[in-house]
Design brief:
single chain; about 500 residues; six-stranded mixed sheet; 5 helices; 31 strands; about 5% helix; about 40% strand; globular
Length: about 500
């Protein structure tokens, strides 16, 4: 029988180990400005020419009740047909039929209760990525609920503003389920964030980015470790769409919901973007930049000021990383400036206050974590943390409740990128390869990229809940292969 991992192993062997699981990150070169439709690879449906489909705004999830000081939601997990490629109905796995999932807006200090009903044919476990929750609300890999059953999750929202998201985490199935659409956005705000004069209302736009692979009938094709086949880039579920904007500031809540792909985003004219937040919410101060990097599962909060462009201007948000050709994966979406508009918003010089790195609690423990996937061409490569495949019954790290720790995480692979996600906590990235991190990584984080050979040093404090949680590579094909481990807070 050909297993998913054997498909990966065969690809590794065929390429001599140079272009392998997770996708080598290749810079895109010779990008063309013509807007012709990219040629469809053999066996795949033809995708439309870039910027011929309009990008929709993600719908807002509405509570069924706001009584009793909490917001209660009822969500149905179901497979439906949706139009991704124009004129083609594609089967997708969804929350409430939305592809991508609708946005759930929550407030710090106000409880959210979500009742999920599973009408799919497989078990699922819904993880609120980046949330500080007790273990029974975490949606762990083995804490599943089956077809025809329901599960209620309660989120107290005791953390500050953050861009969270929720997705399936059922082990061995999470990768395919998320690829087929089972993910959604969860925006947590607090009073301090709402008091800032940032763009809001129609000028705050969540954008879920991902890649996909389709067969000749326009159906999603899932193969674990499919680095080179997923070459259709989707923004809010549409291939390389356009989005009409006014000549004023917009706040874009960017989320990389790909299984494996890393994005490096820039405006086609090299113009400035202002990063104001990351996974765990607002940065301390705005970070002007011309490039935003997002590994799988990472988020970025970005302000773009379109007032510098005359009405009629078209600006492309480009991706400068492969795998895939520039025509396939280089054009993410196009902003079309179509009107003028008043703009009372501004980006303050101070967004929030975080403890200085030197003022963080002194760590009581230093840990070293090594990430690796087999690169030797075997038919069933393993995902490993500290040389071991995940065992749900094994406790890999024991953490004292209330303690602060420094974890030094290393990607030991020569060719394969990884990233690192820890449940329960938002951490601070202290160093990357021994040097201070760039401002975009200096805020609160829950997911951090590691290119081959890279090392990051993270500071985390475990003072909220006791119990068992996981940490893993958030390239979900890798965690499904076993690149995951348990830590227990006690």
């Amino acid at each position: 029988m050909v297993t998913r991992r054997r498909v990966i192993g065969g690809a590794i062997a065929a390429t001599g180990g140079t272009l392998i699981t997770g996708g080598a990150l290749l810079p895109l070169v010779n990008a063309r400005s013509a807007e012709a439709a990219p040629a469809a690879p053999a066996g795949q449906v033809a995708v439309p020419a870039p910027f011929t489909v309009k990008m929709p705004r993600l719908p807002l999830l509405s509570p069924v009740s706001t009584w009793g000081g909490q917001d209660t939601y009822a969500v149905t997990i179901k497979e439906v047909d949706r139009e991704i490629i124009p004129g083609v109905q594609t089967k997708v796995l969804t929350f409430d039929g939305n592809f991508p999932g609708a946005v759930l807006r929550a407030r710090s200090g106000r409880k959210v209760v979500v009742r999920h009903r599973n009408t799919h044919t497989m078990p699922v476990s819904i993880h609120l990525h980046g949330a500080n929750v007790p273990p029974e609300q975490d949606g762990g890999p083995m804490d599943t609920f089956g077809p025809g059953t329901s599960r209620t999750y309660t989120y107290l929202n005791e953390q500050s503003n953050a861009h969270l998201w929720f997705h399936d985490h059922a082990h061995h199935m999470e990768s395919e389920h998320v690829f087929r659409g089972l993910s959604a956005t969860y925006l947590l705000s607090d009073d301090a964030e709402r008091a800032l004069p940032l763009p809001s209302g129609q000028y705050e736009v969540p954008i879920a980015l991902r890649d996909a692979r389709f067969d000749e009938a326009g159906q999603l094709v899932y193969v674990m470790g499919d680095a080179f086949g997923r070459t259709t880039i989707l923004a809010n579920g549409k291939p390389s769409p356009y989005f009409e904007v006014a000549a004023r500031k917009y706040r874009f809540r960017l989320q990389n919901s790909s299984n494996q792909r890393f994005f490096q985003l820039r405006l086609s004219d090299g113009g400035e973007m202002i990063q104001i937040g990351s996974d765990g919410g607002l940065l301390e101060s705005p970070f002007p930049t011309n490039s935003i990097g997002l590994s799988s599962g990472e988020r970025a909060d970005v302000v773009i000021d379109f007032s510098r462009y005359p009405v009629g201007t078209q600006i492309v948000l480009e991706n400068t990383l492969g795998p895939g050709s520039p025509d396939q994966v280089g054009k993410v979406l196009r902003f079309d400036v179509v009107r003028t508009a008043a703009d009372p918003s501004r980006v303050p010089a101070t967004l929030r206050t975080l403890p200085a790195v030197a003022a963080l609690p002194a760590p009581t423990v230093q840990r070293n974590i090594v990430m690796m996937v087999d690169e030797d061409g075997r038919l069933e490569p393993r995902g490993l943390l500290d040389g071991q495949v995940w065992d749900p019954d094994r406790i890999d790290q024991t953490v004292a409740f209330g303690s602060s720790e420094v974890w030094t995480v290393t990607n030991a692979n020569k060719f394969v990128p990884h990233n690192f996600h820890m449940h329960l906590v938002q951490f601070r990235v202290l160093e990357r390869n021994g040097a201070p991190v760039a401002p975009g990584e200096a805020g609160l984080k829950d997911t951090v990229r590691l290119m081959p050979g890279e090392t990051v040093k993270l500071h985390a404090t475990f003072n909220t809940y006791k119990g068992t949680y996981v940490y893993h590579c958030h390239m979900l094909d890798h965690s499904a292969m076993g690149m995951m481990a348990n830590f227990r807070v006690r």
